[in-house]
Protein backbone atom coordinates (compact mmCIF):
# COMPACT_ATOMS: atom_id res chain seq x y z
CA UNK A 1 0.00 0.00 0.00
CA UNK A 2 1.72 3.18 -1.23
CA UNK A 3 -0.47 5.80 0.47
CA UNK A 4 -1.71 5.94 4.07
CA UNK A 5 -5.48 5.72 4.52
CA UNK A 6 -7.05 8.58 6.45
CA UNK A 7 -10.62 9.35 7.48
CA UNK A 8 -10.73 11.90 4.64
CA UNK A 9 -9.56 9.43 1.98
CA UNK A 10 -12.20 7.00 3.33
CA UNK A 11 -14.77 9.62 2.39
CA UNK A 12 -15.51 11.45 5.65
CA UNK A 13 -14.78 15.18 5.76
CA UNK A 14 -14.74 16.35 9.39
CA UNK A 15 -14.02 19.94 8.40
CA UNK A 16 -17.08 20.00 6.14
CA UNK A 17 -19.17 18.83 9.08
CA UNK A 18 -17.81 21.65 11.24
CA UNK A 19 -18.58 24.18 8.51
CA UNK A 20 -22.14 22.87 8.26
CA UNK A 21 -22.61 23.48 11.99
CA UNK A 22 -21.36 27.05 11.62
CA UNK A 23 -23.75 27.69 8.72
CA UNK A 24 -26.79 26.37 10.61
CA UNK A 25 -26.19 28.24 13.87
CA UNK A 26 -28.28 31.28 12.99
CA UNK A 27 -31.25 29.15 11.91
CA UNK A 28 -31.12 27.09 15.10
CA UNK A 29 -30.84 30.23 17.23
CA UNK A 30 -34.30 31.32 16.08
CA UNK A 31 -35.88 27.97 16.99
CA UNK A 32 -35.53 28.32 20.75
CA UNK A 33 -37.59 28.60 23.92
CA UNK A 34 -36.67 30.26 27.24
CA UNK A 35 -36.24 26.82 28.83
CA UNK A 36 -33.29 25.87 26.60
CA UNK A 37 -29.96 25.82 28.42
CA UNK A 38 -26.58 26.06 26.73
CA UNK A 39 -25.91 26.37 23.04
CA UNK A 40 -25.29 24.32 19.93
CA UNK A 41 -22.47 21.80 20.03
CA UNK A 42 -22.89 20.06 23.36
CA UNK A 43 -23.11 16.30 23.72
CA UNK A 44 -26.75 16.69 24.76
CA UNK A 45 -29.44 19.32 24.43
CA UNK A 46 -30.56 20.76 27.78
CA UNK A 47 -34.09 21.85 28.64
CA UNK A 48 -35.14 23.34 31.99
CA UNK A 49 -37.96 21.11 33.27
CA UNK A 50 -38.85 23.18 36.34
CA UNK A 51 -42.05 24.41 34.68
CA UNK A 52 -43.11 20.81 34.09
CA UNK A 53 -42.58 20.04 37.77
CA UNK A 54 -45.22 22.61 38.64
CA UNK A 55 -47.92 20.59 36.89
CA UNK A 56 -50.13 18.50 39.18
CA UNK A 57 -49.49 15.27 37.23
CA UNK A 58 -47.25 15.85 34.21
CA UNK A 59 -47.23 13.22 31.49
CA UNK A 60 -44.45 13.24 28.90
CA UNK A 61 -45.27 12.49 25.27
CA UNK A 62 -42.69 11.54 22.66
CA UNK A 63 -42.69 10.86 18.94
CA UNK A 64 -40.17 10.07 16.23
CA UNK A 65 -40.47 9.94 12.45
CA UNK A 66 -38.84 10.74 9.15
CA UNK A 67 -39.92 12.20 5.83
CA UNK A 68 -39.82 9.08 3.69
CA UNK A 69 -39.20 9.06 -0.04
CA UNK A 70 -40.26 12.70 -0.45
CA UNK A 71 -36.57 13.42 0.13
CA UNK A 72 -35.95 11.93 -3.33
CA UNK A 73 -37.99 14.78 -4.83
CA UNK A 74 -35.98 17.37 -2.90
CA UNK A 75 -32.75 15.78 -4.07
CA UNK A 76 -33.88 15.60 -7.69
CA UNK A 77 -34.89 19.28 -7.62
CA UNK A 78 -31.81 20.28 -5.61
CA UNK A 79 -34.01 22.21 -3.19
CA UNK A 80 -33.53 21.36 0.45
CA UNK A 81 -34.93 24.23 2.53
CA UNK A 82 -38.53 22.96 2.74
CA UNK A 83 -38.12 19.29 3.64
CA UNK A 84 -37.68 20.33 7.28
CA UNK A 85 -41.35 21.31 7.46
CA UNK A 86 -42.25 17.78 6.46
CA UNK A 87 -40.05 16.34 9.19
CA UNK A 88 -41.29 18.64 11.95
CA UNK A 89 -44.92 18.21 10.93
CA UNK A 90 -44.69 14.44 11.02
CA UNK A 91 -43.20 14.50 14.52
CA UNK A 92 -44.73 17.34 16.56
CA UNK A 93 -48.23 16.98 15.11
CA UNK A 94 -48.36 13.42 16.40
CA UNK A 95 -47.61 14.69 19.91
CA UNK A 96 -50.45 17.22 19.95
CA UNK A 97 -52.95 14.42 19.20
CA UNK A 98 -52.91 13.46 22.88
CA UNK A 99 -53.31 17.08 23.94
CA UNK A 100 -49.62 17.55 24.75
CA UNK A 101 -47.58 20.66 24.02
CA UNK A 102 -44.41 19.78 22.05
CA UNK A 103 -41.43 21.29 23.85
CA UNK A 104 -38.23 20.37 22.08
CA UNK A 105 -36.93 18.41 19.10
CA UNK A 106 -33.71 16.86 17.84
CA UNK A 107 -32.87 15.91 14.26
CA UNK A 108 -30.63 13.41 12.47
CA UNK A 109 -29.30 13.79 8.93
CA UNK A 110 -27.43 10.96 7.22
CA UNK A 111 -25.75 11.71 3.90
CA UNK A 112 -23.24 10.18 1.53
CA UNK A 113 -21.18 13.39 1.49
CA UNK A 114 -21.48 16.42 3.74
CA UNK A 115 -22.05 19.47 1.60
CA UNK A 116 -22.20 22.22 4.24
CA UNK A 117 -24.58 24.46 2.30
CA UNK A 118 -27.00 21.59 1.66
CA UNK A 119 -27.00 20.48 5.29
CA UNK A 120 -27.51 24.07 6.42
CA UNK A 121 -30.46 24.41 4.03
CA UNK A 122 -32.09 21.27 5.43
CA UNK A 123 -31.62 22.48 9.00
CA UNK A 124 -32.91 25.95 8.11
CA UNK A 125 -36.22 24.35 7.13
CA UNK A 126 -36.33 22.26 10.30
CA UNK A 127 -35.61 25.34 12.41
CA UNK A 128 -38.20 27.48 10.63
CA UNK A 129 -40.85 24.82 11.18
CA UNK A 130 -39.87 24.45 14.84
CA UNK A 131 -40.14 28.22 15.25
CA UNK A 132 -43.62 28.16 13.71
CA UNK A 133 -44.65 25.31 16.01
CA UNK A 134 -43.20 26.93 19.14
CA UNK A 135 -40.81 24.00 19.58
CA UNK A 136 -37.15 24.34 20.51
CA UNK A 137 -34.57 22.68 18.25
CA UNK A 138 -32.05 21.73 20.93
CA UNK A 139 -29.72 19.34 19.14
CA UNK A 140 -29.02 17.10 16.21
CA UNK A 141 -26.50 15.00 14.36
CA UNK A 142 -25.14 15.00 10.82
CA UNK A 143 -23.52 11.72 9.80
CA UNK A 144 -21.45 11.13 6.66
CA UNK A 145 -21.89 7.60 5.31
CA UNK A 146 -19.78 7.11 2.17
CA UNK A 147 -20.36 3.77 0.52
CA UNK A 148 -23.77 3.44 2.14
CA UNK A 149 -25.33 6.51 0.53
CA UNK A 150 -24.40 8.21 -2.74
CA UNK A 151 -22.77 11.67 -2.43
CA UNK A 152 -26.01 13.50 -3.25
CA UNK A 153 -28.26 11.23 -1.17
CA UNK A 154 -29.48 11.93 2.35
CA UNK A 155 -32.21 10.96 4.76
CA UNK A 156 -33.62 12.88 7.71
CA UNK A 157 -35.30 11.84 10.94
CA UNK A 158 -36.27 13.53 14.16
CA UNK A 159 -37.71 13.06 17.62
CA UNK A 160 -39.61 15.39 19.92
CA UNK A 161 -40.87 15.47 23.49
CA UNK A 162 -43.95 17.19 24.87
CA UNK A 163 -45.93 17.37 28.10
CA UNK A 164 -49.57 17.38 29.13
CA UNK A 165 -51.42 17.47 32.42
CA UNK A 166 -52.80 13.98 32.92
CA UNK A 167 -56.33 15.31 33.50
CA UNK A 168 -56.13 17.02 30.09
CA UNK A 169 -55.06 13.98 28.08
CA UNK A 170 -57.10 13.43 24.94
CA UNK A 171 -58.11 9.77 25.07
CA UNK A 172 -60.73 7.78 23.12
CA UNK A 173 -62.91 7.58 26.23
CA UNK A 174 -63.78 11.26 25.82
CA UNK A 175 -65.56 10.66 22.50
CA UNK A 176 -69.35 10.38 22.67
CA UNK A 177 -72.05 9.26 20.26
CA UNK A 178 -73.40 12.44 18.68
CA UNK A 179 -70.00 14.16 18.50
CA UNK A 180 -69.10 15.90 15.25
CA UNK A 181 -65.97 15.23 13.18
CA UNK A 182 -64.28 18.28 11.67
CA UNK A 183 -61.83 18.10 8.79
CA UNK A 184 -58.82 20.42 8.74
CA UNK A 185 -57.46 20.87 5.23
CA UNK A 186 -54.01 19.67 4.22
CA UNK A 187 -51.54 21.70 2.16
CA UNK A 188 -51.37 18.86 -0.34
CA UNK A 189 -49.84 15.40 -0.20
CA UNK A 190 -47.87 16.20 2.96
CA UNK A 191 -45.27 13.43 3.47
CA UNK A 192 -47.04 10.13 2.99
CA UNK A 193 -47.56 7.92 -0.02
CA UNK A 194 -44.63 9.20 -2.07
CA UNK A 195 -43.56 5.71 -3.09
CA UNK A 196 -46.93 5.37 -4.81
CA UNK A 197 -46.97 8.95 -6.15
CA UNK A 198 -43.45 8.80 -7.58
CA UNK A 199 -44.14 5.42 -9.16
CA UNK A 200 -47.31 6.73 -10.84
CA UNK A 201 -45.66 9.76 -12.39
CA UNK A 202 -42.53 7.83 -13.41
CA UNK A 203 -44.69 5.21 -15.16
CA UNK A 204 -46.55 8.00 -16.96
CA UNK A 205 -43.25 9.55 -18.10
CA UNK A 206 -43.89 12.84 -16.30
CA UNK A 207 -40.75 14.76 -15.39
CA UNK A 208 -40.57 17.03 -12.33
CA UNK A 209 -40.13 20.13 -14.49
CA UNK A 210 -43.35 19.44 -16.41
CA UNK A 211 -45.84 22.33 -16.24
CA UNK A 212 -49.23 20.96 -15.18
CA UNK A 213 -52.16 23.31 -15.89
CA UNK A 214 -54.40 21.54 -13.34
CA UNK A 215 -51.85 22.32 -10.65
CA UNK A 216 -50.92 25.82 -11.79
CA UNK A 217 -47.22 25.00 -11.44
CA UNK A 218 -44.68 22.29 -12.22
CA UNK A 219 -45.11 18.76 -10.99
CA UNK A 220 -41.96 19.06 -8.87
CA UNK A 221 -43.20 22.22 -7.17
CA UNK A 222 -46.46 20.49 -6.30
CA UNK A 223 -44.75 17.38 -4.94
CA UNK A 224 -42.38 19.47 -2.84
CA UNK A 225 -45.17 21.55 -1.24
CA UNK A 226 -44.31 21.55 2.50
CA UNK A 227 -46.45 19.75 5.04
CA UNK A 228 -48.74 22.06 6.99
CA UNK A 229 -47.61 22.21 10.64
CA UNK A 230 -50.72 22.29 12.83
CA UNK A 231 -49.51 21.95 16.42
CA UNK A 232 -49.48 25.59 17.57
CA UNK A 233 -52.93 26.24 16.09
CA UNK A 234 -54.34 23.02 17.56
CA UNK A 235 -53.02 23.94 21.00
CA UNK A 236 -54.83 27.25 20.64
CA UNK A 237 -57.99 25.32 19.77
CA UNK A 238 -57.55 23.03 22.79
CA UNK A 239 -57.12 26.04 25.11
CA UNK A 240 -60.06 28.05 23.76
CA UNK A 241 -62.75 28.72 26.36
CA UNK A 242 -66.00 27.09 25.38
CA UNK A 243 -64.37 24.19 23.55
CA UNK A 244 -64.06 20.72 25.07
CA UNK A 245 -62.10 18.87 22.43
CA UNK A 246 -62.60 15.11 22.60
CA UNK A 247 -60.08 13.77 20.08
CA UNK A 248 -57.53 14.74 17.44
CA UNK A 249 -56.32 12.53 14.61
CA UNK A 250 -53.28 13.22 12.45
CA UNK A 251 -53.99 11.89 8.95
CA UNK A 252 -50.71 10.30 7.87
CA UNK A 253 -49.79 6.80 6.69
CA UNK A 254 -52.87 4.63 6.45
CA UNK A 255 -55.18 7.43 5.35
CA UNK A 256 -58.11 9.22 6.91
CA UNK A 257 -60.35 6.32 7.97
CA UNK A 258 -57.64 4.26 9.66
CA UNK A 259 -56.17 7.18 11.59
CA UNK A 260 -59.54 8.51 12.71
CA UNK A 261 -60.59 5.06 13.95
CA UNK A 262 -57.47 4.95 16.17
CA UNK A 263 -58.72 7.78 18.42
CA UNK A 264 -62.27 6.45 18.89
CA UNK A 265 -63.47 4.08 21.63
CA UNK A 266 -64.65 0.57 20.87
CA UNK A 267 -68.26 0.30 19.81
CA UNK A 268 -68.53 3.65 18.01
CA UNK A 269 -68.33 4.59 14.36
CA UNK A 270 -67.27 7.83 12.68
CA UNK A 271 -69.13 8.21 9.42
CA UNK A 272 -67.23 10.53 7.06
CA UNK A 273 -69.06 12.03 4.09
CA UNK A 274 -66.87 12.51 1.00
CA UNK A 275 -69.42 14.95 -0.46
CA UNK A 276 -68.34 17.58 2.11
CA UNK A 277 -65.06 18.39 0.37
CA UNK A 278 -63.24 18.33 -2.95
CA UNK A 279 -59.66 16.97 -2.86
CA UNK A 280 -57.01 19.08 -4.59
CA UNK A 281 -56.24 18.18 -8.23
CA UNK A 282 -53.02 16.32 -7.35
CA UNK A 283 -55.04 13.48 -5.82
CA UNK A 284 -57.16 13.06 -8.93
CA UNK A 285 -54.07 13.08 -11.14
CA UNK A 286 -52.48 10.29 -9.12
CA UNK A 287 -55.64 8.21 -9.32
CA UNK A 288 -56.22 8.81 -13.03
CA UNK A 289 -52.66 8.36 -14.28
CA UNK A 290 -52.02 5.29 -12.16
CA UNK A 291 -55.54 3.87 -12.37
CA UNK A 292 -55.22 3.58 -8.61
CA UNK A 293 -58.26 1.97 -6.98
CA UNK A 294 -60.22 4.34 -4.72
CA UNK A 295 -59.69 2.11 -1.70
CA UNK A 296 -55.92 2.03 -2.21
CA UNK A 297 -55.78 5.79 -2.75
CA UNK A 298 -57.64 6.46 0.50
CA UNK A 299 -55.46 4.03 2.44
CA UNK A 300 -52.33 5.77 1.19
CA UNK A 301 -52.97 9.52 0.84
CA UNK A 302 -54.64 12.11 3.07
CA UNK A 303 -57.02 13.15 0.24
CA UNK A 304 -56.91 16.77 1.37
CA UNK A 305 -57.60 16.24 5.08
CA UNK A 306 -54.55 16.73 7.29
CA UNK A 307 -56.26 16.48 10.67
CA UNK A 308 -59.60 15.48 12.18
CA UNK A 309 -61.03 17.00 15.34
CA UNK A 310 -63.87 15.41 17.30
CA UNK A 311 -65.98 17.54 19.64
CA UNK A 312 -69.56 18.17 20.82
CA UNK A 313 -71.99 19.44 18.18
CA UNK A 314 -72.75 22.70 20.00
CA UNK A 315 -69.07 23.74 19.83
CA UNK A 316 -68.57 23.23 16.11
CA UNK A 317 -69.11 26.84 14.99
CA UNK A 318 -66.58 28.20 17.49
CA UNK A 319 -64.01 25.54 16.59
CA UNK A 320 -64.35 26.29 12.87
CA UNK A 321 -63.93 29.99 13.61
CA UNK A 322 -60.72 29.37 15.59
CA UNK A 323 -59.22 27.17 12.89
CA UNK A 324 -60.17 29.40 10.00
CA UNK A 325 -58.71 32.41 11.81
CA UNK A 326 -55.41 30.51 11.54
CA UNK A 327 -55.99 30.10 7.77
CA UNK A 328 -56.78 26.39 8.10
CA UNK A 329 -59.73 25.34 5.90
CA UNK A 330 -62.13 23.60 8.29
CA UNK A 331 -65.51 21.98 7.76
CA UNK A 332 -67.88 19.32 9.11
CA UNK A 333 -66.77 15.90 7.83
CA UNK A 334 -69.31 13.73 9.58
CA UNK A 335 -70.45 12.51 12.97
CA UNK A 336 -69.95 9.79 15.56
CA UNK A 337 -72.64 7.16 16.00
CA UNK A 338 -73.08 3.71 17.45
CA UNK A 339 -71.17 1.04 15.54
CA UNK A 340 -74.47 -0.69 14.76
CA UNK A 341 -75.32 2.28 12.51
CA UNK A 342 -72.62 1.22 10.05
CA UNK A 343 -73.75 -0.59 6.92
CA UNK A 344 -71.08 -2.39 4.86
CA UNK A 345 -73.31 -1.91 1.82
CA UNK A 346 -72.28 1.77 1.80
CA UNK A 347 -68.54 1.14 2.04
CA UNK A 348 -65.80 -0.56 4.01
CA UNK A 349 -65.89 -0.19 7.78
CA UNK A 350 -62.28 0.35 8.84
CA UNK A 351 -61.05 -0.70 12.29
CA UNK A 352 -58.04 -2.26 13.95
CA UNK A 353 -55.49 -0.15 12.06
CA UNK A 354 -51.94 0.26 13.45
CA UNK A 355 -52.63 -2.62 15.82
CA UNK A 356 -55.06 -0.53 17.87
CA UNK A 357 -58.29 -2.21 18.95
CA UNK A 358 -60.38 0.95 19.04
CA UNK A 359 -63.33 2.40 17.14
CA UNK A 360 -64.26 2.29 13.47
CA UNK A 361 -64.68 4.65 10.53
CA UNK A 362 -66.71 4.44 7.34
CA UNK A 363 -66.30 6.65 4.28
CA UNK A 364 -69.57 7.26 2.47
CA UNK A 365 -70.73 9.32 -0.51
CA UNK A 366 -68.63 10.70 -3.35
CA UNK A 367 -66.51 13.81 -3.77
CA UNK A 368 -67.99 16.71 -5.77
CA UNK A 369 -66.71 17.01 -9.30
CA UNK A 370 -64.21 19.77 -9.92
From TrEMBL:
Family per record: Belongs to the AIR synthase family.
Pfam families, per database record: AIRS, AIRS_C
Membrane-spanning intervals of the chain: none
Top-level lineage group: Bacteria
Annotated metabolic or biological route of this protein: Purine metabolism; IMP biosynthesis via de novo pathway; 5-amino-1-(5-phospho-D-ribosyl)imidazole from N(2)-formyl-N(1)-(5-phospho-D-ribosyl)glycinamide: step 2/2
Highest classification ranks of the organism: Bacteria, Bacillati, Actinomycetota, Actinomycetes, Micrococcales
Domain (PurM-like N-terminal): residue spans on this chain: 51-164
UniProt cross-references to PANTHER family, sorted A to Z: TRIFUNCTIONAL PURINE BIOSYNTHETIC PROTEIN ADENOSINE-3 (PTHR10520:SF12), TRIFUNCTIONAL PURINE BIOSYNTHETIC PROTEIN ADENOSINE-3-RELATED (PTHR10520)
Enzyme class at the top of the EC tree: ligase
Catalytic activity: 2-formamido-N(1)-(5-O-phospho-beta-D-ribosyl)acetamidine + ATP = 5-amino-1-(5-phospho-beta-D-ribosyl)imidazole + ADP + phosphate + H(+)
Subcellular localization: Cytoplasm
Keywords: ATP-binding, Cytoplasm, Ligase, Nucleotide-binding, Purine biosynthesis
Domain PurM-like C-terminal residues, every copy: 176-338
HAMAP family, sorted: AIRS (MF_00741)
EC nos: 6.3.3.1
Chief subcellular location: cytoplasm
The name this protein goes by in its record: Phosphoribosylformylglycinamidine cyclo-ligase
Keyword Cytoplasm: yes
One MF term in the entry's GO annotations: phosphoribosylformylglycinamidine cyclo-ligase activity
Species the sequence originates in: Luteipulveratus flavus
Amino acid sequence: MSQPITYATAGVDVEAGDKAVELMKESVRRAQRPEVLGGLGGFAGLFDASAIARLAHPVLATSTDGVGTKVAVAQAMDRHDTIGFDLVGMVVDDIVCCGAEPLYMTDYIATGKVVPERVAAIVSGIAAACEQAGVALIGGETAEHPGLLEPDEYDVAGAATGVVERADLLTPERVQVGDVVLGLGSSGLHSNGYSLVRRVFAAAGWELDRDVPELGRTLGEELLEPTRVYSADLLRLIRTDGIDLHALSHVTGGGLAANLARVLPQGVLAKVDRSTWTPAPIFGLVQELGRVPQSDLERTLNMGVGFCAVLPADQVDLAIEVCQSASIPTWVLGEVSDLAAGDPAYGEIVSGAKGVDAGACQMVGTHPKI
